Amino acid sequence: MIDLTHIRRALRSGPVLLALASSVSLSGLGCGGHENATKTSTTMLTAATPLDNESAVLRVAHARCDHAIACNRVGEDKTYATRDECMQKMSYHARGDLRSSACEGGVREHDLDDCVREIENQPCGSSSDLSPRSACDRSKLCSF
After folding, report:
1. Both 127 and 83 in a single domain?
2. Per-residue pLDDT tens over the stretch 84-138
3. Is 66 among the domain residues?
């Protein structure tokens, strides 16, 4: 019996991660007078595919705007009047860093996850919504 659960999950998650998983169960095989023997084997192969630049831009912009909202910087008489305004500005800045011509091979999703986590963990008192720069630096994100 082949368990396709892992393959179905990987296919639903999109082109970012290609997973091939198989689980084989052999049972009911007698072995020299012994009771039925059971053997289970599981194999998982993964190949990371770079994320396209625009998807990465949107993830960074969403993370930065979520942070701006959490830090009370979005609303009337605030840094950004609306989430849409925040997304426009954050997308513009992220697109400058992650544009296709500067990041030709796409973006490494694992490193983008680190960038998003760093944005989420940034204290509200920081000087700019464009911080942090370290984990979100082009040299760390791009698959050259």
Report:
1. yes
2. 999 999 999 999 888 888 888 999 999 999 999 999 999 998 766 666 667 888 8
3. yes
